[in-house]
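Anyone else keep sequences and structure tokens together like this?

Example one:
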Amino acid sequence: MYYFWVPEIKMPEHYFESDGGSCVCRLCGEARLRTFSVKLLECPHCGVLVSTEQPRDLQAHYSKDFYTEEQGERFRFGLELPVRCFRWVRFRRLMRRGPYLRVLDVGTDRGWFLKCFQDAGAEVFGTQLSKSAARVASRRLGREVFLGELSDAHFPEASMDLVCLYHVLEHVREPQAYLREIHRILRPGGALVIEVPNARCLTARLFGRHWLGWDFPNHIHHFGPASLRALLERHGFKVLEESHWSVEFGPFHILQTILNAFGCSHNQLYSLIQREELHADRRASAASQMAMLALAVLLSVPCGLLSVLLSLCREGEIFRFYSIKGGKAV
């Protein structure tokens, strides 16, 4: 059980219905949200968690705080290269179920993932909220990446073989609207891949507010496997595969969470590896950074092993669903 409770919380205005101001879950519509923690509300019916701290303007937020203005980069110390390798691993994993002729990547990052599909002969499409990342991705792909929300792109009905949302659904205000739109633009039998942090994992339960995956205010909705599976089924998708292993996110999530619990500045390692201009206001002193790095080195191997063990127990920091369009959306 999570251990940081409060009696009352103020919810963002867009979650309140006009009739009496009742705070009804917008994902299932079956129950009123209830207080779960200092910054979270919970739907007792579908189990989704909703952040009360949210960006006012999503496009402005992700243009300013996620990518550098000129190069669209996020990380320093040469970490952009392993990120590119991780995108190739994603591509190879999906090609085991391919091939795919038309691929849409929602929140397409810097375009590396789509470039793999493009080089394999697929026609690729992407959306992005960050102007700098969209510019870099468009240049890399040689075609325009749509800047804005998915619904505003107006892709043709039944036009896609594969739609990917890697660490996107937790960032959007209306996940159900995204799923309805994806159901519309996927061909019958087309595939949808979603990967999100696992808000019901063991480390989230044990470490509470120290868990990296909350990532306030960037993450608006927080899912567990049961709540996301129910949401997908309600919108006409059939889950074929569930995975809890992520070499990109799992070990680091656990490491940063433990560092937070040990008293290091909140998400200090995560801030350190990002470009200076993105989080210059959050840099700690040199002594604090050295102490944190020494502890991180000591914990890195145990955290990696723990990540493997938890993923085998279906308690991984991250989970991923591979699903297909298999029914009528509600």
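And example two:
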Amino acid sequence: MKNRAVLCDSTRAVANRIVLHIGTQKSGSTFLQQAMRTQVNRLESAGWLYPMRWARRERSYNQEAPMYGGAPGGFSWVSEPRTERLKVAWNRMSREVQSWDGPVLLSAEALSTLRTKDARKIVDSLQAPIEVVITARSLERIIPSSWQQHVRNGRGESYQRYLRRIADEFVKGEGEAGAAEGYEGDLMRGFWRAYLISGLVRRWQKLTGGSITVVTVAAGGSPNLLWQRFAEACGLSEVLPTEAPKLSQAEANIGITAPEAFALAAVNRAMLSTKMPDLARRRLRFMIVREGFHTRPERGPNLAVPEQDRSSVSGWSKFDVDELSNTGASIVGSLDELLSEFTKAPKDPTASEVSDATYLALQKVFEFAPPESYLTVRRMQRKLKKLLRSS
């Protein structure tokens, strides 16, 4: 390609600017990244780089894995051995970026969770002017979606406990008094580091000194609307197609419903009580969702913020939008889309819907568990029945 320079000791190409999409998580980022992966050749023909050569045989669609190696210790869910392995991917991707003499687009939604000291490792290493793009949804939609993702990642924390925890963390993180600075000390306090958008903007303004653009994700908006807004924010409206690429359900990371989430959380608690290897548990969760939940004709209601928590969530959203309007960040969309107004009453899943989802999950466990795990699965089944009776 014409923009891919050859590096030698006497000369070194540097990307003339980097558009860095830092999330947030659960804001359509997987859809955007999967769609961008289909546009790699089109982007390169227009002089842009969306680096994927670092991945080689790895099935990847974004630049998140290398970031784990670029900010060691910054991601609470990434082990030290995995971080060490991914330093190779970081170095490989860095060389790919540094060998490009045009604009570069990088997308890694977990960057939104980083503390300042960890994010600075990424910024300093990239060695180019950085323009940050943030995709953001209202807390009304983020909170249920975030808990669902925790469950899909193998956690067994109940929804009620999760809601209490983030409420407590907002207060302990100094809330209104310290929105921009209040979540720096504790690596595990990532929810508000990411989802208090005003604080996220201010943090990255200090880090990069460059422009920050927030793309709001409309409730019920079409994939094309998000795609077009993202393209505008990145300066790619004249490069990318107007219509978003068509993706499969798995590629778009379609969520799970309320009864499915409650069922999977119970299964996770049961699996965590066994000695089943982590890799086996991860595969089982994947198969439960893809081969089980996603095939159900009647999947039940979507998860929502409970009635008793809605006043708090509305207050957090209002505060954040007011703060965000004073940051100077560019907005593509509307700040009103980040407010949590709760126009619909929550619809709780019935006991029968949760039981049906749990039964299907157990079917998939027996179907896809490795043969050597049979006794473990039987013990897990007994544990699950106790958990369900106590829930």
